[in-house]
């Protein structure tokens, strides 16, 4: 069995335990760990199938799990490219989120932040989504290009209306951009991983044996991941706006108006730093689904009452 899958199946964790787990996996050093060290860690875990992360006395095993879980895809055992590993989400998207909700001066100033954010989000979702079904490279490229174009259009359209009709109310300037960012982040997951509910993803028993491919499990995986993205980016964009709203009414702001952007950027990074592990922890990495909820052909292929699937990140 793939070590990462074995870990997530056997380690039944609560939300708090998953949160603490992700704070380790999101360590920025996981972005630059060498391939040689990753391969050694994988060999160690493959050689010791009974190795558990709860082995507190064995620091080598702990480090091996950390490297494996943070750099290797659980479906195909391939290395995740550095810029799209879970630990890269915060440093890449925090500045984009900050720029995406800034007040609009001209539509041109909004194009680059929107294109950058939805391009990165789309590639991240495709790379870290479920990879157990048959998918050709050109399908991913065409799908990704369409998702990037549509997400960027819907992200820019409200800003176009704001500039065209000179809408300067708090609702149009601060609230609506946050709502749109959160909703489009969720829809981006649904669109970029839309092949999963169409073709079905692998469902397996507790031993890791594949029982079949389920479209219903694919739908559930996307729904859970999309929900976590809405929570992540919605909260990360909303809280800095609230802080900024009250900060503008202080004497310090009147004396140093430039400090608003420093506060807002710092607040965005701090909130996202907390919300990334929170959003990843809302649902288990390896989801569980009752066999009775799956297709009839899968129900007839096993006597298990509960099956497992990779939700993706």
Commentary on this structure:
By secondary structure, this protein is mainly alpha-helical. The chain contains 13 helices and 4 strands. The chain has a two-stranded antiparallel ribbon with strand order 1-2. It has a two-stranded antiparallel sheet with strand order 3-4. The longest helix has 33 residues, at 215-247. The two termini are 20 Å apart. It holds the Pfam family SFXNs. The chain crosses the membrane at residues 140-158, 230-247, 259-283.
A few lines on this structure:
Belongs to the sideroflexin family. With 313 residues, the chain is mainly alpha-helical.
Topology diagram in text:
Blueprint: H1 3-10, H2 15-25, H3 35-47, H4 59-71, H5 89-100, H6 108-128, H7 137-164, H8 170-192, H9 195-199, E1 201-204, E2 210-214, H10 215-247, H11 251-255, H12 259-281, E3 286-290, H13 296-299, E4 306-310
Antiparallel strand pairs: 1-2, 3-4
Helix pairs in contact: 2-12, 3-4, 5-6, 5-12, 6-7, 6-8, 7-8, 8-10, 10-12
């Amino acid at each position: 069995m793939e070590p990462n899958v074995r870990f997530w199946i056997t380690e039944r964790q609560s939300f708090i335990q998953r949160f603490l787990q992700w704070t380790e996996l999101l360590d920025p050093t996981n972005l630059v760990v060498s391939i040689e060290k990753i391969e050694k860690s994988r060999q160690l875990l493959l050689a010791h199938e009974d190795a558990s992360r709860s082995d507190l006395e064995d620091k080598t095993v702990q480090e091996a799990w950390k490297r494996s879980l943070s750099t290797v895809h659980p479906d195909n055992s391939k290395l995740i490219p550095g810029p799209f590993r879970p630990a890269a989400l915060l440093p890449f998207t925090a500045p984009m989120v900050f720029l995406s909700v800034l007040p609009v001066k001209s539509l041109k100033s909004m194009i680059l932040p929107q294109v950058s954010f939805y391009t990165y989000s789309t590639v991240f979702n495709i790379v870290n989504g479920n990879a157990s079904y048959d998918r050709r490279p050109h399908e991913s490229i065409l799908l990704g290009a369409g998702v990037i174009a549509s997400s960027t259009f819907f992200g820019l359209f409200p800003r176009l209306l704001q500039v065209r009709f000179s809408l300067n109310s708090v609702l149009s300037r601060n609230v609506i951009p946050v709502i749109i960012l959160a909703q489009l982040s969720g829809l981006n997951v649904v669109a970029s991983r839309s092949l999963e509910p169409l073709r079905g993803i692998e469902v397996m028993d507790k031993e890791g044996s594949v029982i079949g491919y389920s479209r219903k499990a694919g739908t559930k995986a996307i729904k859970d991941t999309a929900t976590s993205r809405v929570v992540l980016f919605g909260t990360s964009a909303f809280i800095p706006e609230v802080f900024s709203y009250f900060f503008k009414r202080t004497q310090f702001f009147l004396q140093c108006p430039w400090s608003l952007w420093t506060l807002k950027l710092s607040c965005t990074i701090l909130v996202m730093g907390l919300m990334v592990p929170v959003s990843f922890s809302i649902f288990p990495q390896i989801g569980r689904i009752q066999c009775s909820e799956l297709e009839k052909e899968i129900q007839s292929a096993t006597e298990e009452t509960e099956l497992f699937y990779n939700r993706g990140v």
